[in-house]
Amino acid sequence: MKKILSVSLVLLLALSLFAAGTKEEADSNTLVVGATPEPHAAFLELVVEDLAQQGITLKIQEFTDYVTPNEALESGELDANFFQHIPYLESFNKEKGYHLANAGGIHVEPFALYSEQYDSIADLPEGATIAIPNDPTNEGRALLLLQSAGLLTLDANAGLEATPLDIASNPKGFSFREIEAASLPRVLSDVDAAIINGNYAIPAGLIATQDGLLVEGADSPYVNVVAVKQGRENDKAIVALVEALRSEKITSYVAERYPNGEVVLVTE
């Protein structure tokens, strides 16, 4: 009887170890990726089947803000996210003490100044109210865009995280409304102009190269990346995801869906 029980226990232990190994293998082949809807989640949807052919299950969670997907990535709820550019990622790590890393750059969404009231930056009146993103890196990015057109001058030490307090010269006396990035398209009619991130401008029907009074140059350092926890950059499934997002399928989709340069793919 003892011998039978001993054999049974060995078999149960072996089965449990096999089950655990199977689960770990399944988990390693499943990627839960957070993304903002357009173009990020759209890109991910395009490569679901391609990754499945490699034995990788891609699950996509959509977010409409910039904070929650980074919190979910840091806590381990996500394996990766795809919505942010490098300066934002680095700023988030610094501010929150997080450990997020760039696993690969995919594209740039040109940042632009839009207005429903004026047709050119020269038409912006003195004292105009301009809405800008309220997160540190995109706020600085907005002010740098205005500086590039000679509309204001920032303090020499302001850097990429400039705020309105760093404005050294403001000849036309512009005032600024600092607003959450996702809300900027909704307030466009309430201000003289607004500087809007591409992933919120696109769903609102705004095309930077057509509707923008001022558009970021092609040499933008704000490349959108696949972000992961530090140490996972070279995980097999993560590398496969980045390669899929750089595939000809994405190139063709961008050429057809964004013919006016709303999204610019990068090569690394």
Would you spell out the secondary-structure blueprint of this structure?
Blueprint: H1 2-28, E1 30-35, H2 37-46, H3 48-52, E2 57-62, H4 68-75, E3 80-85, H5 86-96, E4 100-108, E5 112-114, E6 129-133, H6 136-148, E7 153-154, E8 167-169, E9 175-179, H7 184-187, E10 193-196, H8 198-201, H9 208-211, E11 214-215, E12 224-229, H10 236-245, H11 248-257, E13 264-265
Parallel strand pairs: 1-2, 1-3, 6-9, 6-10
Antiparallel strand pairs: 3-12, 4-12, 4-13, 5-10, 5-11, 7-8
Verbal overview:
With 268 residues, the protein is of the alpha/beta class. 40% of the residues lie in helices and 22% in strands. The chain is built from 11 helices and 13 strands. The strands form 3 sheets. It has a 6-stranded mixed sheet, with helices on both faces. Strands 9-6-10-5-11 form a 5-stranded mixed sheet. The longest helix has 27 residues. The radius of gyration is 23 Å and the shape is globular. The relative contact order is 0.19.
List SSEs in N-to-C order. Answer: HEHHEHEHEEEHEEEHEHHEEHHE
**Shape from CA axes?**
globular
Radius of gyration: 23 Å
- Main beta sheet: 6 strands, mixed
How are strands sequenced across the largest beta sheet? 2-1-3-12-4-13
Uncertain parts? 1-26
Oligomeric description of these chains: single chain
How much helix is in the residues? 25-40%
Please report the total strand number as a whole number: 13
Mean pLDDT: 89
Which structural class do you get from the secondary structure elements?
A: alpha/beta
Total of DSSP H or I helical runs spanning 4+ residues = 11
Spatial gap, N to C terminus: 66 Å
Strand fraction:
15-25%
